[in-house]
Amino acid sequence: MTATSTPPPTRTRTRVAVIGGGASGVLTAINLLVRTDDPGLEVVVHEASGIVGRGVAYGTNDQRHLLNVRARHMSAFPDAPSDLLDWALRTGRSSDPQGFLPRADYAIYLQDRLADVADDRLRIRAGRVLDVVPTGAGFEIVTERSTATADTVVLCHGNQPPRPLATADGAALPEAPWHVANPWELARLRALPADARVVVVGTGLTAVDTAITLLEDGPQRHVTMVSRHGLLPKPHVGQAHTAWVTKVPDDAVTADDIAAAVRAECDAAAERGVGWRAVVDGLRPLTPELWRRLPLAERRRFLDVHAREWEIRRHRMAPEVALRVQSYRYDDRLVVRPGSLHAVADLGERCRVATGPGQAPVEVDAIVNCTGPLADVRRSEDPLVAALVARGTLAPDPLALGVDATVDGAVVGADGRVVDGLFVVGPPRKGTLWESTAIPEIRGQAAQVAAAVVRAGSRRIVAN
Fold first, then answer.
1. N- to C-terminal Cα separation, the chain
2. Residue-wise pLDDT tens for the chain (464 aa)?
3. Pairing of strands 351-354, 362-364
4. Neighbour order of strands in the sheet with 351-354
5. Are the CB atoms for 359 and 276 separated by under 8 Å?
6. pTM of full prediction above 0.90
7. How far, CA to CA in Å, does 267 sit from each of 79, 261, 262, 297?
8. Taking Cα atoms as reference points, which of 211, 162, 157 lies closest to residue 189?
9. Rounded to the nearest 5°, which phi and psi values hold at 30?
10. Cα–Cα distance for residue pair 79/9, rounded to 1 Å
11. How far is CA 33 from the centre of its chain?
């Protein structure tokens, strides 16, 4: 009698497409790979350049561009807070927990961490993703070179390029040798004359990095930074060991209420010899809850009245960076003031610009756009984002700060319903969470979304 062999069970594969290979994409891929040993999992990271870990935030090659968060808070793993420090020690870098590593080094750290957990379930695919099409059974991933399928998609496309610059009368700046539309084109900055005069539009952390590249490489250069408020980020200071648990009353339901509560906490801390930085840091875990507590009209008031004062205290300069900026201003090589592009005249290789109605126009060698990332997805020139918005798969949040999504990262389409199997991690979730741009928040989102994807994959296997 011949024995009848039992056919092996059908192997169910779960293919997850991670769109974007910057910090958000790498952290999502890491969490997917370490949360399950399921051999049927396939993680495909689509990164236009084919080089993961860099993105906009960590793609700089200027070692003077530093992280603005202390190294002890930048581990890829919230349950292993010393991981970055251990890596830095092993690789011959500074392992000072209070220090600020170069951002280019952090990209290498992310690459190394992904390599540590990578196995035959991981694929890196170079090429820009042009569209993600829901198919009912999953998604079709359309790239410049090919088409693939996925059961689940995690959008990790990060920040959009800055919104285009325009003058006071609404005229867009032309494409010209003097118009640097992307501040991360460092080769264009370095190619400017050694005595170049430059207007930097924006006074945030990107503008500060731009000024460092320009002024350190050209001792005769001069930079004028302008923004609506003319406020620079505040500096970090020597780390105090005194923590402060910031409390906000439950009945604080307006933007002004919360601002008043935070001021009161700062006053109370000062009476005990504790600086306002500890109060701001103590508020960080509560920020998403406070943001969700505010009605839409109050969120708008926060943006109009309080946002800039919060941003310059929340996202601070590393001490070394602040000292550089202070020395530039002392030497009169850097001017920071309120202003805008009131008028711009194209002179060919240079331009003439007035930064306010009462300001005399001056000739400059470059205008650099450091206004911050474009938030409104309806205005995006990214072909993927544009395609998703056009189909209604993606929609702006009510304040157009990013992508409409649930608090756990599921994308909400234009019809107000969750798009099954489509998630988002990173800066596009700012409208939902407010705090969504720094590694401590992004790593938490990546872990949360990865857990949801793994659970869904497990249910799919059981159903089959």
1. 33
2. 444 555 444 446 799 999 999 999 999 999 999 999 999 999 999 999 999 998 888 888 889 999 999 999 999 998 899 999 999 999 999 999 999 999 999 999 999 999 999 999 999 999 999 999 999 889 999 998 899 999 999 999 999 889 899 998 899 999 999 999 999 999 999 999 999 999 999 999 999 999 999 999 889 999 999 999 999 999 998 765 567 888 888 888 899 999 999 999 999 999 999 999 999 999 988 899 999 999 999 999 999 999 999 999 999 999 999 999 999 999 999 999 999 999 999 999 999 999 988 889 999 999 999 999 999 999 999 999 999 999 999 999 999 999 999 999 999 999 999 999 999 999 999 999 999 999 999 999 999 999 999 988 766 555 55
3. antiparallel
4. 343-346, 351-354, 362-364
5. no
6. yes
7. 33, 10, 9, 28
8. 211
9. -60, -50
10. 36
11. 23
β-partners of residue 180 are: 368
| Encoded tokens for 386 | 């544009």
The kind and range of the H/E element at 277 are helix 276-283
Residue closest to 130 by CA, chosen among 377, 380, 385, 373: 385
Task: Please give the Cα distance from 209 to 205 (Å, whole number).
Answer: 6
Cβ(444)–Cβ(78) under 8 Å? yes
